[in-house]
Amino acid sequence: MSQQQIYPDVKLFVDGLWCDGVSGYAEPIFNPATGAQIGSVAHASIDDLDRAVNASRDGFEVWRRTSAFDRYKLMRGAAEKLRERVSAIAEIMTLEQGKPLREASAEILLGADIIDWFAEEARRSYGRIIPARSGAVQQAVVREPVGPVAAFTPWNFPINQAVRKISAAMAAGCSVILKGPEETPASCAALVQAYVDAGLPRGVLNLVFGVPSEISEYLITHPVIRKISFTGSTPVGKRLAALAGGHMKRVTMELGGHAPAIVFEDADVREAVRLLAAAKFRNAGQVCVSPTRFVVHEQIYEEFVERFIAAAEAVIVGNGLDETTQMGPLANLRRVEAIESLVSDAVQQRACLRTGGKRSGNEGFFFEPTVLTEVPLSARIMNEEPFGPVVPIARFSTFEDAVAEANRLPYGLAAYAYTKSAATSGAFGAAVESGMVSVNHHGLALPETPFGGIKDSGFGFEGGTEAMDAYLNTKFITEHHV
Ligand code: NAD
Asked: How far is the CA of 156 from the centre of ligand 1 (A)?
């Protein structure tokens, strides 16, 4: 079968039906490994959004009254459908996003685990009784779903970013309008189809695509929508949070990061290089928790740099459909241009380009794994989220210097450290300003653990029990028995 035959033309899903938008416009979808068009995605206009809003209002009335046990059963069914379809969906994801097939499969299987986790949490959404000051009074705290949710998800993890929001919201009893990623819509649609095939009632989950700013402005300000959840860049997140604030809507904001990776002098250098290279080049660096500022103790700096350059040069870059590929293309031309511009700015500011630094191949959006050293702090790459396969490596001499560099930027999403010392690990964990800290491994983003940032990296968590709180209101009921 050709790529065009495998890849579907993606529709909107509104009020239980797959449909074109009323305008009839469909945006082309391109394979980032070849640049060729492989399909299209329907755009929603205001009429379509109105239907989605009405459906989410009606769907919410049904879903909030569906017992937690029945929500759990349906969600577990959706997780099983995803697992059954992993190979077919992985191929679609690789075609539209570029990541290697094994990364796509892992993302889908983790998505199924995330649904399972939240399905189970749905059954554990407890209230509490607070002892009263009088025997005649009963004080109860109950948790209620916040209402219809508008969720906005990006193209780097088409399933993972969406499944976290959908599953937590649905577990809590909320309905959802998901604005999926226009550039990678088909795997997101496959996720919605898994829910549909598991018996999803009409209106509980709706999927739209279109012009992001038009959709977000319409949905965020619409009175039916009670909660906003966004994953994407910090500048867009700030705009959407401000809009939501003007309408007193609750928000979850999963924004950018610029994760420090501190390698202390007592670290196992070989192991640090192996794990950091795997994390750095995963999804071609287009990961919000990707390690992006390597800061290495001066005693082991030269050895670390030499070993890391060798690891970068050993990465097999190619079409994600090839079994041997370890790193695929960047997801779109914007990212290639952004990375080219970050590298040339660093080099102009006298950074040393140690390997990579340019596009590769004669088609698609490939960029070489790239290592820079001696990069001044004024270089843009030391301040802006790179979101690509490029890493600056700097050196430090004291613990205080390392922490100062880690905390220098307004971001606070993920931070990594490598050390054999429990004391250093503990001190780093306490000192670093970050929503998540991972020492001697990269252990983030599991369904059962909190995932989220502080400072400019956002607000709220998308994993663990905290994720359910984001979609629940607390209601206090006190009753005097008469
Ligand atoms: P972008 O900032 O234009 O878009 C980022 C995401 O936000 C996309 O999914 C886009 O559809 C969405 N978006 C943009 N404007 C919007 C609006 N007004 N309303 C609703 N959604 C909107 O840029 P981009 O080129 O797609 O990505 C560039 C940067 O975004 C990256 O460098 C990275 O910093 C960040 N990003 C972060 C994540 C993440 O996982 N946190 C994912 C994708 C992109």
From this structure: 9
Indicate whether residue 471 lines ligand 1 (CB < 6 A).
no
Ligand 1 atom nearest the C-alpha of 255 is 41
**C-alpha of residue 208 to centroid of ligand 1, in Å:** 16
CATH architecture of 259-447: 3-Layer(aba) Sandwich (3.40)
Ligand 1 atom nearest 335 alpha carbon: 25
Ligand 1: residue whose CA is nearest its atom 33: 233
pLDDT at 6 (0 to 100) = 86
At the top level of CATH, the class of 12-255+457-477 is alpha beta
Strands (E) in 147-202, as ranges, are 149-152, 176-179
The per-residue pLDDT for range 85-132, each reduced to its tens digit, is: 999 999 999 999 999 999 999 999 999 999 999 999 999 999 999 999
Does the beta carbon of 254 sit less than 6 angstroms from any atom of ligand 1? yes
- The residues spanned by each domain of the chain are 12-255+457-477, 259-447
**How many other C-beta atoms are found inside a 10 Å radius of the C-beta of residue 141?**
14
Burial class from Cβ neighbours inside 10 Å (0-12, 13-18, 19+) for residue 377 reads exposed
Query: Are 390 and 288 within 8 A, CB to CB?
Result: no
Which residues carry out catalysis?
A: 254, 288
Find out whether the beta carbon of 387 lies less than 6 Å from any atom of ligand 1: yes
Q: Are 152 and 159 in contact (CB under 8 A)?
A: no
224-263: pLDDT as tens digits: 999 999 999 999 999 999 999 999 999 999 999 999 999 9
- Contact yes or no for 99/285 (Cβ under 8 A): no
